[in-house]
Known about the structure:
The complex is a heterodimer. By secondary structure, chain A is an alpha/beta fold. Chain A is built from 11 helices and 12 strands. In chain A, a hairpin with a 2-residue loop joins strand 9 and strand 10 (about 230-240). Chain A starts with a strand and ends in a 9-residue tail after the last strand. Chain B is globular and about 70 Å long.
Amino acid sequence: MSPLLSIQDLSIAFGTKPDCITVTDRITFDLEAGEILSLVGESGCGKSVTALSILGLLPRTASVLSGKICFDGQNLLTMSSRDLDRIRGNSISMIFQDIMYSLNPVFTIRNQMCEGMICHLGLSRRDAYSRAADLLRRTGLPDPESVLQKYPHQLSGGQRQRVMIAMALACRPKLLIADEPTTALDVTIQMQIMNLLLDLRRETGMAILLITHDIGLVSEFADRMAVMYAGQCVEIGETSRIIARPAHAYTHALLSAVPDVSGVNRHLVSIPGSVPERYDRLKGCRFASRCPMITSCSFRTIPDFREVEPGHLTRCTAFGKGL
Amino acid sequence: METPVIDVRHLSRHFRQKSGGFFRGTTLKAVDDVSFTILPGETFGIVGESGCGKSTVARSIMCLEPPTSGEIFFEGTRIDTLREYRRRGLRPRFQMVFQDSGATLNPRKRIEDILREPMLYHRIGDPHGLDTRIDELLMSVGLGPQARSRYPHEFSGGQRQRLCIARALSINPDLIVLDEPVSALDVSVQAQILNLLQNLQTERHLTYLFISHGLGAVRYISHRIAVMYRGRFVETGPCQTIFDHPAHPYTQALIDAAPSVKERKPRRKLMLSGEIGDAVPTGACPLVHRCPLSDSACLHYKPCLNPVSGEPAHLSACMRNLGAIND
């Protein structure tokens, strides 16, 4: 059976041709139905751009250089915008990080929630309303009827995020893209929201693409993870395996740099330097300038994926061999 | 006994709400009867969710916010009632580093001018020797002398945070108040800054007040911590003790809720419902509606900090002992 979402060799560039910047370089991954895959990486690594490209939401300055995004066997990149409209918000929906700006301040929650259901599902206003109230109740909001009459500014951050989730789920999506869904929230609220997403996945069987920089969140909630660095996917595999036995120098460094609440890292090993500017022009391994294992690998060539365990791929030539 | 660097006694800061529709005219208790001391060379961490009042504590200590009631002593001198011109002599001894490093550096000034200004103002060092001092400062935070003639926007977030630390260090403070210094940074840079802060502390015998909502960072850097909820300390004590044996349900819930790399938790014992802003009746425990352990007694009693059995430095403001749940 083919995967629900399959991204192959996706390269995206910003700017116009001679001096455009390639921000994602040949990203490839599959997402099965009902699975939670996490794209994890630091800011500027291209994870959000990858997510936006799936729904055709890239800004005008960006262009897709190569690659395919197949959803249910259809290539989303070659689809007309009218066909895309049937998929967006319907079988693929998205939750954004900036909850402040993702809800329209001049319409009530009721107005915004019902619009999508009337368009995509052809419900009447009254049916849409009762379904909206039902969805809000499912997301754990205590008094959905009163929330529906309110405007976004009258809700707290956690409430707004719940409204966003309810809206995203309104048309029973097969795939939910969650771009930093809990970054703006406090930890106790984050836990409530993440547990809610897990419950909803169990009920509806949707797949979730979780985009985050929080490696702790990934290790607790994602089935598989893809680590991104400087526009490339550097390691992909099952979460528990990667956390236990990272096979890329960057993943390893990242794990030992997290001040974890369990106190597991007694001494944080910081990664020297910062992400190189214009990393798309580098010829070899993009992590080379910061890598502590640089002597034991051939960093001058662009490393290709190598399988360390079944389903666990890495771009690092040195790491994971002796481990 | 050593004189504490900071001694805060019964600090309260209330805001009268002028606007806000329904809430107009009510009083918001941002900080409510908070007391603590920080000893020389120590890092005291305050952790809590957004809106719990931790930044107001920091601002009160820096005298940026007059307390509604309570006393703040800096090395034995009461500073909250000092007149500004008298306070100026003490100013260089306590400095602050803010969260948003981009907004606290003047975009129109070069780095050398940003670092020179506080030293000129407070007459620190020989005016002719300031150039070498600026180089030293930049070196000590891990930046090269070539940074001198550049402008703030040319630096990344982590580098800007280093510059803010350098500026705070420029006038040889004893205490640095760090308000969410690493929250806006990426993990790899976060570790750099935390390690830098630790190294500077051992080199210069600095005292830190470290404020963050990130439990991991607080656990890593602090010697003692306080957990804050709705303007009150709900638990204080040695860092290790609190993380290993939290006595207050809120602390337990915070630790449980923080995602961890190492443990995929089926160990979730406590989960809070609701949100920090939910209304609480007066005279009740602030956590009453969110706490899974609360009962009718919690509605009528607002607990104060009391020693947890066995450890005199470990205080918790809860009616029940969590020891039974931990086992």
